[in-house]
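Example with several molecule types.
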Amino acid sequence: MNILEIKDLHVSVGGEQILKGLNLSVEQGSVHAIMGPNGSGKSTLANVLAGKPGYVIDRGEIHFDGDLLNDVDPEVRARAGLFLAFQYPVEIPGVSNMEFLKAAVDSLAAARGGEQTTAVEFVKSVRKIATALDLNPEFLKRGVNEGFSGGERKRNEILQLLLLNPRLAVLDETDSGLDIDAMQTVADGINRFRDAHNCVLLITHYQRLLNHVVPDVVHVLSDGVIVKSGEKDLAVTLEERGYAWLTD
Amino acid sequence: MADRLEDSFAESLIANLDSSSGSWLAVEEIIDRLKSSLTPAATKESWKYTPLRDFLVGFTGAAAVTPDITGVNQPGLTMSALSAAGEYARGPAALANTGPLPLADAALLCAGDAVHIKVSGEIAQPLEISYGEGVQVPIVITLEDNASLQLIERNNAVEFCNHSLFVELNRGSRLNHARSALDSNCCDWGLTQVRLLETTDYRLQQYHTGARKRRAETLILLDGRGARAELTGAYVVESNSHLDQQFIVEHRSPDTFSRQTFHGIGAGKGTIVFNGRIHIHPDSPGSDASLVNKNLALHPEATINTKPELEIYTDDVKCAHGATVGQLAEDSIFYLRSRGLSRDDARTLLCRAFLKSCIEGVLAEEVTEALLRNLTGP
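Resulting structure tokens for the full complex:
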């Protein structure tokens, strides 16, 4: 069963066409990696999936759990179980992490018709995840990503992934800017998330992360279309040979 | 035609005046001052965005009303009538040269005496002043040496209000002053003049919404070595509302300190005016002053006029000022929406954070919700 189904997707940003007929199916229980050179459209794919304003779908369809997603608001996508781990998580001074995470958890719970967690339960579960991700629980009192290092921001994204427990996790270059230890921590988080009921779309430049999070399928995105798909070994080949041979 | 109201105001006010109490001696002087100062004041730049005459129309000649004052029956507080209140309004306001004086003078004429509250020692409970409809009897508060007080001021009028407050802090005294004006229909004008002598400490937290017309003038006179004033506040202005805040800080002694930090939101098609002036006089070395005014324009037709002013006549001072007008960051809104928050909830969360950094003190809780309610208005 496919959680995500993308058909003939054409997307432009600021009048410039970036995705030019992308097709992709991600089935439940799988991890798909998207690799590709700079400017190939990887982040555009992540942003258009999350519904970022300014990303215009000119043609094609995105289906999420069978529902057409093209014109759905970002918050509705999130409530349906789509999660984007940002490449550059923004800093929001004055809004504490605690306030932000509770608001997110509550809005998802409300959409799913579930009960809101109590403050105590909530803090317990956040602290547990934070400790596993090597984030000092004191961070809850600070503003969202305020004064966070690049590594802390990425770990905060993974914390949200584990807390919100979506159906589909789109990770946009979550490995960029991480040192070796942080990469291992982040990879552990992703592995902890993945199970038979969800799926992961892992966007990355490098094969390194894929040593820790082993994908089921690797796709190569080039000039707005997927030019090759294969098993995990494809990532190793790309690391050795680069991308040029695929488009020559 | 435009200036006729100012020209004839003093005469018509005197002709209509009900008040017979005018027991203070300076009536003639105040009448003369009003006659000569009103028209020149109305044409000053500080009145560019808010016509002074809007605040004259509520003067019917009826006697001024004494505001509700609670907490005055405490050890260390005494209240009496003060016939020489005009003295308090004279020197410093003239010095500031911005023209708040005539509106305070007009109130003094309607009031006869002012209310004088003397403060000695440390006062346990807050002193609360609530203004009602009409011209309010001016209030003079004198803090004696080393006294300390929490003052809360609320404007409860919904039609017209004119109020003025003159405070004197004597050596070593401290005043924490929180005030709010949250009615959106009122036409009100208020003057606060605070004179600080040596090693005194004054803190103001001011929370205002816009109104039909609202203008708050605050004049701080740092008149003794080591005097400190910290002014902070937050405001939200909805559609068809107008809020004009004028701050003047006069550093007139060495080693004086002032901070002004104000955040405001233009939430509708209304008008915000913010004028913050820092004036460092000669022979005031070691003065340390700063002014920060940040504004968010949530509505495309919000009008925001903010102007910091700096005038320095002494070397060896520290001064900083900045005024900004911006919008909510779309990236932040998208980030919050991507986690399931609606666009409105995301906006509210960001606005709350923006205002919250300027909300503190005893009124914090009651004003935060009141200000945010104005964001989503009808």
